[in-house]
Structure formats: structure tokens, C-alpha cells
Write a structure and sequence with these properties.
14 strands; 34% helix
């Protein structure tokens, strides 16, 4: 510590200020004997470093210390990184959820489209099978045929009729034969430009000339108001008819060709006191399940084609058929 010299003649206040200044200036300088020398500190650091290297080389001490420090700092690292990781997880979760929802919606739409396509394919397959069945069941005298869809059905005890989507613009006429792959369905009665009404053979107002295939016995099959049965009310009690007999069209009436299947006899009741037998038959046509039917045009030049009549008069005929001359009787020599 140095003391600043005090000159004579100065005031007491100035002497005090110089004394303080000198004391402050001396206190700012480092003391010569404080702390170790630089060489000693270097030696100490070198010994510590060598010791650490030896311990690390032999006992893997630094690696253990590193593991301990890493374990001690892991909670801190986890606490620091958790908000960011949580935010990224939330973002990823929402993104994954949106992607899954979009994928589920796409798959649901695809599944609905595939189901609709499968339904259309099934419908087309059934329609194709029905058309093949209709075509294969055409009578030999058919010249043209036209498939028609049933668009409306009226099946009750008083009316057994259907509406089809073919009309006069398609060449359909009244009293035209309507068939399916099983047998006779009915005939058209009212024809419009785009549709036609078909009276079924089971309608109470419909009467169909038929014959028993086994015996060729002719009779009339009348609708009973039930799509699953026909009545034969004009058979005498002594008629040769039995359960299982097949009824076919007789060719009379000018609508259906002869020999086309109509129904099968399922019930025969004969009473000795009743002049007529009670006979029921089941139609071959699928009247209660048909969705398609076919309209038939027949060749008029075929002998099996039905002949049209009106008021007891035929509308068509063959003018080329003329009487044949009687054969001459050969002269016999007298005995």
C-alpha cells in the first residue's frame, strides 16, 4: 500500500482527498503472494488428466461417468423435448385419423359401387337366362318374338292382369299370344302406344280352349281368380281324366297354336249324383313370379298357326285350295 505524499501549504480537505485517492490506487493492484504459480497449476492439471486417462483406459471410468450423467440428465431432456414431441404426436394423430377417415369413406364408396355393380350383373345374368329360356321355348310356328318387362301387376280374385312395356309402336296388337318359358301366360286385350294390358289365363273372365294330351279330349280351361290354379267346369263326370294329365292348347280360338303346354291336372272329384266333374289344374307359367314375358307373332302360312275369326267368320284363308275332282271308277267286267 502506497501513501501519497502530502505537501505543505495544502488545505486539510485537499490532503484528505489525495490520501483517499492514493489508497484506492494502491488497492487495485494484485498482491504478489496471492494464489499458486502458473507452473504448479499446469502440473496439477496434467496429473489430473493423466489420472483420468489411466482410469478410463483400465476401468472405463469415463464411460461409466458418462452413463451416470446421461441417466441423470435424461429426465431433463425428456421434460424439455416432451412438449415438442407431444405436439408432433398430436399433429400426426390428427393427420392419421383424417387419412383413415378419408380411406374409410373411399372404401365405403367403392364397396357400395361394387355392390350395385354386382346387383346389376346378377340382374343381367337373370335376364339373360330368362331370355335364353324364353327363346328356347318358342313354338315352331313362331315367326317373330319380342321380350317385354312386366311393369305393373294386378292379381286378385276378380282381376288377374299385368301391364307390359310394349305397345303399338312395337307392333303389338290386341288378342296377341303372351308366353313365358313355362307355358301360356295370357293374351293382350288393351294396347296403347307404349304399353299393353295382358289378361292372364287365371283371370275369371278368360277362357282358354285346351285338350288333354293323353286322350286329346277337348274342353275349356277357365280362370279361377287364383294365379296358381285353373278350373275345368265343363268336363262330364264320366270323362277320362286323371291327376297328372297334361293340358295343352287345342289351337281353337285363333290366339294360341295347338300343342303348347298350359297346365297339369292336380285335383279330380267325381260325384255320381253330379253331371260334371270338379277338376283343378296348376298352370305351367310362372304367373306370380314372372318379370319378363314374350309376345309371339305366328307364321300365317303354317298349318299349325291359329286362325283368326270374328263373329263366327274366319279372317284369313287359303284361296288356292280348291275342290279336287272325284276319282274315276274303274269299269268292272261282268261275270
Amino acid at each position: 500500500m502506497r501513501w501519497a505524499p502530502v505537501t505543505s501549504g495544502s488545505s486539510s480537505d485537499g490532503s484528505a482527498q489525495r490520501l483517499v485517492a492514493g489508497f484506492a490506487t494502491g488497492s487495485s493492484r494484485p498482491l504478489q503472494g496471492r494464489g499458486g504459480s502458473p507452473g504448479f497449476r499446469f502440473f496439477l492439471y496434467a496429473v489430473v488428466a493423466i489420472t483420468l486417462m489411466v482410469l478410463d483406459q483400465r476401468f472405463d471410468w469415463l464411460e461409466r461417468a458418462h452413463s451416470v450423467m446421461q441417466a441423470a440428465t435424461y429426465p431433463v431432456q425428456l421434460a424439455v423435448s416432451s412438449p415438442v414431441a407431444g405436439w408432433h404426436w398430436v399433429q400426426k394423430s390428427f393427420a392419421s385419423r383424417n387419412a383413415l377417415e378419408a380411406e374409410n369413406q373411399r372404401l365405403r364408396t367403392r364397396l357400395r359401387d361394387l355392390e350395385l355393380r354386382s346387383m346389376r350383373y346378377d340382374a343381367l345374368s337373370r335376364e339373360n337366362a330368362a331370355l335364353i329360356g324364353l327363346r328356347s321355348s318358342l313354338p315352331p310356328v313362331a315367326q317373330r318374338w319380342l321380350p317385354a318387362d312386366i311393369v305393373n301387376i294386378q292379381l286378385d280374385s276378380l282381376r288377374q292382369r299385368v301391364l307390359i312395356d310394349r305397345g303399338s309402336v312395337n307392333g303389338v296388337t290386341a288378342s296377341q299370344a303372351v308366353l313365358d318359358d313355362g307355358g301360356v301366360v295370357g293374351q293382350t286385350i288393351h294396347v296403347g302406344p307404349w304399353s299393353a294390358e295382358v289378361i292372364l289365363i287365371t283371370d275369371p273372365e278368360h277362357a282358354l280352349p285346351v285338350q288333354v294330351e293323353r286322350t286329346s279330349y277337348r274342353t275349356i280351361a277357365v280362370g279361377s281368380g287364383d294365379s296358381t290354379s285353373l278350373a275345368l267346369p265343363y268336363l262330364p263326370a264320366n270323362a277320362d281324366i286323371r291327376v297328372g294329365d297334361i293340358l295343352v292348347t287345342s289351337g281353337l280360338g285363333g290366339v294360341f297354336p295347338p300343342g303348347y303346354p298350359v297346365a297339369r291336372i292336380t285335383e279330380v272329384h267325381k260325384d255320381a249324383v253330379q253331371p260334371l266333374a270338379h277338376v283343378r289344374a296348376v298352370p305351367f307359367a310362372h304367373l306370380d313370379t314372372d318379370t319378363e314375358v314374350m309376345l309371339i307373332w305366328f307364321r300365317h302360312d303354317s298349318p299349325a298357326a291359329p286362325l283368326k275369326e270374328r263373329n263366327g267368320e274366319l279372317l284369313t284363308g287359303d284361296r288356292h285350295i280348291q275342290p279336287l275332282p272325284a276319282p274315276r271308277k274303274s269299269a268292272q267286267s261282268p261275270k
